[in-house]
Amino acid sequence: MTQRLGVIADDFTGATDIAGFMVENGWRVTQLIGHGPAEVPADVDAVVISLKSRSCAVEQAVADSLAALARLKELGCDRFFFKYCSTFDSTAEGNIGPVTDALLAALGESFTVICPALPVNGRTVCHGNLFVNGVPLNESGMKDHPVTPMRDANLQRLMAAQARGQVGLVDYNSVLAGPAAVRARIEELKAAGVNYAVLDTLTMADLPVLGEAVSELKLVTGGSGLGAGLARVATGGQGAALARELGAPVAGGRAVVLSGSCSQMTNAQVATYKQRAPHRLVEVARCIEAPAAYAAELADWVAAQDSAPAPMLYATQPAAELARIQAQYGAARASEAVEGVFAAVAARLAGQGFGKFIVAGGETSGIVTQALAVTGFHIGPQIAPGVPWVRALDKPLSLALKSGNFGDEHFFSNAQEFYHD
Ligand SMILES: Nc1ncnc2c1ncn2[C@@H]1O[C@H](COP(=O)(O)OP(=O)(O)OP(=O)(O)O)[C@@H](O)[C@H]1O
Ligand SMILES: O=C(O)[C@@H](O)C(=O)CO
Question: What GO molecular-function term can you cite, just one (predicted)?
Answer without folding.
Answer: kinase activity
